[in-house]
Amino acid sequence: MKEKIKIIKITLWVIAGVITIFIITIPWRSYVYRKNIADGKSLLAERKYTQAYVKFQKAETIEIKSADAETLEKLAKDSAGNLLAMRNFLADEKKTDLLALIDRANSKTCDLELDKTLIDKGLPEVAKINLEFCTTNGPKDYNSWMFLGLANLRLSESENIFKELKPGLRSQAADDFSKAYFVDPVNKTAIQYAIEVNKIIGNQGEVDRWQKLLDNLNRIEKP
Fold first, then answer.
1. Nearest C-alpha neighbor of 165 from the set 93, 66, 79
2. Are 187 and 142 in contact (CB under 8 A)?
3. Does the residue 59 lie in any domain?
């Protein structure tokens, strides 16, 4: 009986100790939670989707079932696939520079020169907003398809994009370069990019097909 009472006392002391530690660490856990949320928001505003997602996940482990952390995790995932999903977040965070670029890209007016500049400056997901409008509602010309292919390809190369999104982006790029080729079959640039992206995908049959088309064009050009 004495042994049993002793075990109960030890158990109660352990439980009391755990509760005490939990209460004492509440301010620290609250601080770490807020810091992870703040850091994640900063990373998300910089389009570092995967790093932001990790911060929000860490926040959720500290405050289980946190509505804010769960909402921000979803936002990071959605924004990586469609930057327009981040618009309200950027407005709330007062990130006016990126917000202005997004709104200009979403102005329902084709601006291929701006799109090319955005791609060159490492903002392919912003350019993609405008280019998807151009290829759906615009002239659907060679450059529209080429730049959309480049935007998708460059986005797939980014270390900030979730791995599961990359195969889809590469497939989209391959389709875009194919459409550019059919608009202008004698322009070799689309073919060269089609070869490049299909090599990355690992589709040797498509690599061979595009390489044959390129070889034929090279033979025709020879005097």
1. 79
2. yes
3. yes
Q: Which structural domain range is residue 45 located in?
A: 1-81
CB 43 within 8 A of CB 55: yes
Q: Which of 81, 99, 134 is the last residue of a domain?
A: 81
- Residue found under tokens 């490492």: 122
Q: What's the mean pLDDT when you consider all of the chain?
A: 88
What is the Cα–Cα distance from 73 to 75, expressed in whole angstroms?
Answer: 5
Plot region of 136 (φ>0 → left; ψ -120 to 50 → alpha; else → beta) = alpha
Evaluate whether 154 touches 164 at the Cβ level (below 8 Å): no
Q: What is the rounded average pLDDT of the residues 84-106?
A: 95
pLDDT digits (tens, 9 = 90+) for 169-220: 999 999 999 999 999 999 999 999 999 999 999 999 999 999 999 999 998 8
φ, ψ of residue 97 in degrees (nearest 5): -65, -55
Average pLDDT (140-161) is 95
Domain annotation covers residue 89: no
